[in-house]
Amino acid sequence: MGMVDKAKNAAEDALGKAKEKVGELTGDEKLEAEGNKDQAKASAKDTVEDVKDVFRK
Q1: End-to-end Cα distance, the chain
Q2: Core-most of 3, 8, 16, 36, by most CB within 10 Å?
Q3: Of 17, 21, 13, which Cα lies nearest the Cα of 43?
């Protein structure tokens, strides 16, 4: 299950980066902030997955 969660986190991070870039290019600060939030959320989830992996071994 860890690999699936990591893939979802990577997808969420990529989507966040895309939102951030589109917001940057269009001057939409709200979209840019939402992209940053999505990236931070994915990073936090990825950290949790890494901790879980340590305890599974």
Answers
A1: 14
A2: 16
A3: 13
